[in-house]
Amino acid sequence: MPVEMGLWRAEGDTLTRIVPAAVGLESQLESFIESDPSILGEVLLVIGRQVPTAHGGFIDLLAIDETAAVHVIELKRDRTPRDVTAQTLDYGSWVASLSRTEILGIFATYQPAVALEEAFEQRFGGMLPEEVNAAQVFTIVAASVDAATERIVRFLNEDFGLPINVVFFRHFHDNGSAYLARTWLVEHEQPVKTARSTKTSRSRETWNGQDWYVSFGDSQGGRQWSDGARFGFVSGGGDKWFSRTLKNLPLGSRIFVCIPKVGYVGVGTVVGEAKRFDQTVISQNGETMNLASLPLEGTYTHDGDEEDDAAEWAVPVEWTRTFPREEGFWKQGMFANQNTAAKLRNQFTIDQVSLAFELDS
Fold first, then answer.
1. What is the pLDDT of residues 231-240, one digit of tens each?
2. Which of 84, 128, 198, 292 is deepest in the core (most CB within 10 A)?
3. What is the pTM of this model?
4. Domains of the chain, with CATH numbers?
């Protein structure tokens, strides 16, 4: 049966029921949710308001959660409960077709002064996932719904696992104070289910086939970025896990080098295959030289490195631009990865580094 919320003032042994306000709460709810979407029960980042769809109509609010699932939030307003349910599902079918690029475009229209990658990191404290809009959640905001709508929503949610729910808000006034009460039609204590799309290729940024991310683990007493910048190489090792991805870098690829917790310090082109550090040769002033024989500041040996899996491995690089460690470039929302080398799909990072390093010039 439809949900009913009650509020009473307790004064000693006496309870006085507070009657919900009759004024148009729904006209304010959209702004309330936009300013603080956590009133829906979880941390969300609003990415659009009154978003036009390709089939006519406007979605009241679009938001994303920390997994980059997109939440379609529709207010009942003066529509019949059945109409708003059907409209929410219709909008959801359109949202599910949107690519990562289109989601970023919606946010750019909503907040043109900031990139979604930056806003996401500011809100959630982490990098925007590679897959955006791989799943959707549908929320109807209402003061009440009829019994038929309740049956439909429960049927879709509980029997078919469709992540659709109704959140009820009631507005109360008492002794000069205003209160907003919230409850859910379907139990909302567990993590919100999401409807996953099969369009991974659209929800994930397309790799341009050229750019790679490289993590350079500069550390005191270990490898030094000053060596890599001076002599033209990147390296990793000490365990198979650190060297295995380095071996994936193809000749001619462009690499964006980042020192963890410091920032991006170099962009260059791979000019040689990955080899053990003590077997790597590089070109210096027209001469071919063994890398290990150069006057290096860092240390590139490891316990047990007679075995290839424990050895340091290096890749020769021709630098386009480098910066000293202390000038490493970092901006909220940029890509970082625990692997030594990974395909760089994050166009925001490519654009920001290119601008900071003046690569176009």
1. 999 999 999 9
2. 128
3. 0.75
4. 7-203 (3.40.1350.10), 211-356 (3.10.590)
